[in-house]
Structures are given as C-alpha cells and as structure tokens.
Design brief:
The complex is a heterodimer of chains A (about 70) and B (about 130). Chain A is mainly alpha-helical and about 70 residues long. Chain A contains two helices and no strands. In chain B, helix 2 runs antiparallel to helix 3. The chains are: A mainly alpha (about 70), B mainly alpha (about 130).
C-alpha cells in the first residue's frame, strides 16, 4: 500500500517540472496559446491522478467511521 | 515504525512543493494534497484498532450501540472536514475553508440531535 502511492508524489513533481520546461520552450517559440493549453492539460491529468487517491481516502473513512 | 515513513514523506513532499511553487503553484498544491492523503492512509490502520477496542468496551458496558456509531460518525466528519479546510487554506482560499467548516458543523449538529433528545428525555424523567 505504501509503495504505490509515494511514486504518485514523484510522478506529479515530474509532470510539473516537465510542463514548466515545455512551457518555457513554447513561450520562446511565440506560442502563448499552446503554452496555456499545455498548462491546463497538465493540471487536468494531475487532478485525475489525485482524485483517485482522494476517492481511496473517502472509501477508507467511510468504512472505518461508517459515514452514510 | 510508521513515524519514520511519515516524517520522510513530509520532508520529501515539502522539498518538491517548494521547487514546484516557483514554476507551477497549482501543481504544488496537488503535491501537498497527495502528501496529506498518503500520510492519513498510513496511520488510519491504527484508528481501526482503536475503534474496534472502543466498540468492544462499550458493548461490554451495555451501552446503546447507536450512540457510539453517531459518535464515530462525528469524528470521521470532523477529520474529513479539517483535511479539506486545511487544503483550501493552504491554497489561499480562506473563505471556502470557512464554508467547509460551517457545513461540517451543521452536519455534526444534525447527527447529534438524537443524542441531545435522549439526554433531554432522561432529564425529564428525573423531574417529577
């Protein structure tokens, strides 16, 4: 259980650094709109990954404290 | 020894969030969310044991199990609401955090009403 989720942290940080590098390249190439789109897509991808983890947290809390 | 893992994870997430905050503040927030969730999932198994022990003790004491269940539900709601509010406050959205706190208070109040009613009923029986 522990090993799976810590690499999510690294994955998010990696995506962040990757996107900022690509952003700089796109800005240099005078493609501001595509840089903006790239930022949006990166946030959405990371959000999808984070949502799965949050779902797991909610399920765990629900079974332990028998919420709803 | 979960404490070593929790502290290591916290330091790691802190370094990553500080690096990311310069370039991508929105991803730094996500890193802190993931760190918080993973830490909670690491230590939640101990809470399971505590809940089991408390349930056994209250069953032995002949307590009504419904009250214990609503108590546990209140604790869970408080944990979840605190987590969400802290994340919002970290991201600089203090007003959303205040609304989460408010909603949690309302829900806890609704769950606590049967207990309050039971207390009032037993007091009314004492008064002739």
């Amino acid at each position: 259980m522990e090993g799976i989720q810590i690499d999510l942290l690294f994955r998010i940080a990696g995506i962040g650094i990757f996107i900022s590098v690509l952003n700089i390249v796109l800005k240099q190439a005078e493609k501001q709109e595509q840089a903006q789109m790239l930022t949006l897509v990166g946030v959405v991808i990371v959000l999808l990954m984070v949502l799965q983890l949050i779902n797991e947290l909610f399920q765990t809390m629900r079974t332990i404290f028998n919420l709803y | 020894m979960e404490i070593v893992q929790v502290v290591g994870l916290g330091l790691l997430a802190m370094v990553l969030a500080v690096i990311l905050r310069e370039f991508r503040p929105e991803l730094a927030i996500q890193v802190s969310i993931v760190a918080g969730v993973v830490m909670i999932l690491l230590v939640i198994n101990y809470v399971v044991n505590v809940v089991q022990v408390v349930t056994e003790i209250s069953v032995d004491a002949g307590m009504n199990i419904v009250y214990l269940q609503s108590l546990l539900r209140i604790v869970g709601i408080a944990y979840l609401a605190e987590f969400g509010a802290q994340v919002c406050r970290d991201a600089g959205e203090g007003s959303i955090a205040a609304k989460i706190d408010f909603a949690a208070k309302v829900i806890i109040l609704v769950i606590a009403i049967p207990i309050v009613l039971a207390v009032i009923e037993s007091i009314m029986q004492l008064i002739p």
